[in-house]
């Protein structure tokens, strides 16, 4: 056994003491240079932990929405709201993915990169215009408008004047109320539109269709919680089917089930047949899978077809612009939108729209 030299032990102790002192002095000096104190450093660590928790919480929420989009189902009322906001929820994923990759947080970067890809795939139909269809020679020209006039409007006269100024051939109104109906009559609406189908039960289910052309067939029918107008208008001898729909929003479990059933029933009842227009307040956006299922039947969204897919219709009664489109016109075969414009309606939380349509003339198909 070798006995250690006392001098060697003393030298090692001196070196360790010197190293520790030097390290502490360096750390203290560095902290002083950065203006750190133990309390400030602790706060910074706390903020980093909170920031990380927030990012992962946001990741979980956005991931849930991404999964619901992939599966194609809206399970709960919260998802009904979040799906409508999909582009706004997904947009931060690009900078998060970039920063996470830079900081070498591989899993976080991969998750958000996948979300960016999902958003791009979902948005392709909105930015790439598809086939608008055709109408054959000498189509019928028709101006069609829709307005949700809000059943509790406090500006019925102003709303009626605005809607009449559309000078539409066919006018669809959702949330039609007796207040608006009386104002519409005072403003000369009944003289302007001698043909009409309307119902005003005093709630959001009020609905109406007004036409300058004869309505040769019509039915107002309940669809679960909502109402639907299904009419055929004779435009210079050409029958045009106009269907007005208003599924109510799914803000709780019961109403969400009814909204889903409403869209399914509309899908079952109305096909994108020749000379068919399906329009109204769907309380659904492109970002709701059930609405995309409806479009997949062969409908052409009028706003998308003229390059206005990013125009919004709701809410229009808050500071700032509307941020989601839930009011739509869907066109069957033989109907093409030449132009679409959106219009503010006094007293309503929705923007109205006016369509310039070309409709295949009867007897020219095929």
UniProtKB/TrEMBL annotation:
Gene3D superfamilies: Endonuclease/exonuclease/phosphatase. It holds the Pfam family Exo_endo_phos. Signal peptide: none annotated. SUPFAM superfamilies: DNase I-like. GO terms for molecular function: catalytic activity. Residues 157-350 form the Endonuclease/exonuclease/phosphatase domain. Keywords: Membrane, Transmembrane, Transmembrane helix. The chain crosses the membrane at residues 50-72, 78-102, 109-128. This is Unannotated protein. It comes from freshwater metagenome.
